[in-house]
């Protein structure tokens, strides 16, 4: 079974050619003989009409015309008068040998049988002539198609042509048609092969394009230039390919965004669960302590004034710890949600660093920490004042809580072309390398016991991260010789104002 369009088209064309040739041959074989007979009958009638029109009783003036008919049509022509005398006969042995044409006229009484046949037939006919389809000639052992007609002067005209000649002509024509038909079929097969290939080439091209489109490959385009239906189909495929490519591209983009959204939601859910668990854990201890010490006070576990004051101090400290935790949680949520948009002003960050250190003076002196500021004495930046103060405060608080060894704390300010870097160094133990990337996560603590000892919540560095992300600036931490250094960048002010360097500081 032929499956390809090219094969079907080729088979169809070859079949049509073969059918046409065979049908034509069959028609010739069955009807050509009849057609030839009908044509010869018409020729006999036409010849009779011409001779009847020109003949006036003497064949001499018509000799050239009669010889032409004889040779061209193959007719045997005889003219007989009513007295059975032959006036003209095209058979050579009935003509006078040699001499002029007039001397070669047939002599009367040369063939008695023929003349009697002609006259008898003429007398029995109803019209001016009669055509006899098959007249046998015993002498020649063949059949003739004959016409007997009456001429205008009363003479009789006899025309005949051999039937085998007609049959042979038909047979020859059939044989020739068989040969030519076979040649036509051979040529038709070659033509059908070439035509089918040419005609189906654009269809095969579009098929290949469609197969690549099914594999989501839209790089191929139809290149045909015809302006027919196939060309229009090719252009439609190109249009469809472009639209599918755009649609699939949009779908892929949307799918990727959806996957990102799903992943983000998953992370948010994980963070939410972790956050809730962390908050619950952080609040559980102070709540339990407040509850325990409050019940102790209520039950007068210890009536000593000093112990009661201790109980009250513990309750106060734990309440303050919870207040700090809630405050920091609210601050972190407000920044991460995008509700806290930085209000950019110009201020001196070196002066801010000095103010934050002055606020921490009592704690620094209590813990014996040697604090200093290095670098630029004045450095103007553009940022949200309160947010950057919180970043600096959280860094210094973290440094105070983790300072050990030499008890050194150093704040350094370095100005660049478009950024100002603030770094806070504290002497002490380094951060475990595996924890460097995790310290910015909410509630992450490298030393939980020490963090709680100093009242830490594990949110300070998370707030730093959120504030820096809101400003679009970098931050980080690194273990350095002798301790740990935290740093953050701030946008440098475009140019220094002409007035007080501390301008922009909220009153």
Question: What does this molecule look like?
Answer:
By secondary structure, the protein is of the alpha+beta class. The chain has three domains: 5-171, 2-Layer Sandwich (Beta-Lactamase), CATH 3.30.450; 244-340, Helix Hairpins (Orthogonal Bundle); 342-491, Histidine kinase-like ATPase, C-terminal domain (Heat Shock Protein 90, 2-Layer Sandwich), CATH 3.30.565. Helix content is 55%, strand content 16%. The protein is built from eleven helices and twelve strands. The protein has helices at residues 5-54, 63-73, 112-124, 163-214, 229-298, 305-336, 349-359, 361-366, 385-402, 448-453, 460-471; strands at residues 76-80, 86-89, 129-137, 142-150, 156-162, 344-348, 370-375, 380-384, 408-415, 419-427, 475-480, 483-491. The strands form three sheets. Strands 2-1-5-4-3 form a five-stranded antiparallel sheet, sandwiched between helices. It starts with a helix and ends in a 16-residue tail after the last strand. Residues 93-110, 448-455 and 497-503 have low confidence and may be disordered.
Question: What is this structure, in a nutshell?
Answer:
The protein has helices spanning 5-54, 63-73, 112-124, 163-214, 229-298, 305-336, 349-359, 361-366, 385-402, 448-453, 460-471, and strands at residues 76-80, 86-89, 129-137, 142-150, 156-162, 344-348, 370-375, 380-384, 408-415, 419-427, 475-480, 483-491. The chain has 507 residues and is of the alpha+beta class.
